[in-house]
User: Which sequence fits this backbone?
C-alpha cells in the first residue's frame, strides 16, 4: 500500500514540476519579448500579498506569477538599456482614458462607458491609464531642471550665477536630469 502512495506522490510531484517549468518558460519568453520590443515597460504596483488573502483569488493569483514576471522583465529590460516604471493603479479603471472624467462603477461592471462616447473594456481602459501615467513619469524624469543659486552672504554680489557641472564648459547654468 505504501508503494502505491509513494508512486502516486511522485507522479503528482512530476506533474507539478512540469506545470512550474511551463510557467517559468512563459515568464522568460514573455519578458524577453517585452525587453526586445519596448524601451519602456510600465507595470502597475499591485499589492499581491494583500490580494492573495482573498481565498477566492489566491490560487489564480499565485498561478499567474505576476511578481516573477515583473522581476524578470525588469532585469531583462534594464539589461537591454530600457527601463521599467511602476505606477500606482489607484483609480485607473474608473478614470476615462479618453477625457479623464471619473466614471464610478462596481467591480462587476466590465465595460467602461463614458459621457464622451468612449465604450471600452474596463481592463483595457485601465491599461491605457497605467501607460499614460508611466509616460508622464518618464517624461518628468527626463526633463532638465534649472537649479537657481542661493545667496549665501550679504557681502556677495547680488548677481550670482549658477555654475556648470561640466568644468570645460563656459555655460553658467546647471542642468540636472532626473533619473531613477
Assistant:
Amino acid at each position: 500500500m505504501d508503494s502505491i502512495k509513494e508512486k502516486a506522490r511522485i507522479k503528482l510531484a512530476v506533474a507539478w514540476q512540469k506545470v512550474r517549468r511551463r510557467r517559468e518558460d512563459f515568464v522568460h519568453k514573455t519578458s524577453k519579448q517585452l525587453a526586445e520590443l519596448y524601451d519602456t515597460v510600465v507595470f502597475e504596483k499591485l499589492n499581491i500579498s494583500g490580494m492573495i488573502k482573498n481565498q477566492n483569488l489566491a490560487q489564480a493569483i499565485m498561478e499567474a506569477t505576476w511578481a516573477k514576471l515583473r522581476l524578470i522583465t525588469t532585469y531583462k529590460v534594464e539589461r537591454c538599456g530600457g527601463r521599467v516604471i511602476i505606477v500606482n493603479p489607484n483609480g485607473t479603471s474608473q478614470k476615462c482614458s479618453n477625457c479623464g472624467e471619473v466614471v464610478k462603477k462596481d467591480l462587476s461592471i466590465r465595460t467602461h462607458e463614458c459621457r464622451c462616447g468612449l465604450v471600452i473594456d474596463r481592463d483595457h481602459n485601465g491599461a491605457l491609464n497605467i501607460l499614460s501615467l508611466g509616460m508622464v513619469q518618464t517624461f518628468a524624469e527626463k526633463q532638465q531642471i534649472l537649479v537657481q543659486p542661493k545667496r549665501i552672504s550679504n557681502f556677495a554680489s547680488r548677481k550670482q550665477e549658477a555654475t556648470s557641472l561640466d568644468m570645460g564648459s563656459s555655460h553658467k547654468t546647471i542642468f540636472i536630469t532626473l533619473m531613477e
Observations:
- The two ends are 60 Å apart (CA to CA).
- Residues 16-143 form one domain.
